[in-house]
Design goal:
Structural class: mainly alpha
Order of helices and strands: HHHHHHHHHH
Strand content: under 5%
CATH architecture of the largest domain: Orthogonal Bundle
Number of domains: 2
Largest sheet: none
Amino acid sequence: MMELNALPPEEAQAGFLSCCGSRRWARAMTGQRPFGSYEAMAEQAAAIWRGLDREDWLEAFAAHPRIGDRAAIAGAGSEQAGVRDAPHDTLEELERLNSEYQARFGYIFIVCASGKSAGEMLSLLRARLLHDPREELLVACEQQLAITLLRLKKNFNCNT
C-alpha cells in the first residue's frame, strides 16, 4: 500500500486504469489515496464503481478483450486461462454467442473469468443472454467489479 500511496498522481491513475478501464473511476481512486489496507481500497473501489453512470461502465467494459477471442487470449494472461486450451468448437460457440450478446446488449460479455473453464463461461454466457437489458447491465457491472478487485490485489501487490 505504501508504494501505491507514494506514487505521483499520474502514475497512480495509470495503475488504477490498468485495473478498470473507466477514466472517471481511476481519477476518483487516485483522489482517495492514501489507503491503509487492501480492504479499505477495495471498499472505496466498490463504492466509486457503483456510483458511476452507464457511460463510465461501458467505457470500462470496452477495455476488455472478448472472452475466447483467439487473438486476445495470449494477452489476457491468466485471466482467460480457462479458454486457452478449449476445444475449437467451444471457442467457435463462444465467438458466436459473444456476437449475439453484443448485438443484444450493446457491449461485450463481461465475466470474471479467473478459475472458470471455457465450458463454464459458455454456460454463463448462454444464461445471461436470457436477461433483460437492465438486469444484465447490473450483472455485468458486478462482474467488472470482481475483475477490478482481483486486478487491484495483483497489480498493487496486496497480499491480504
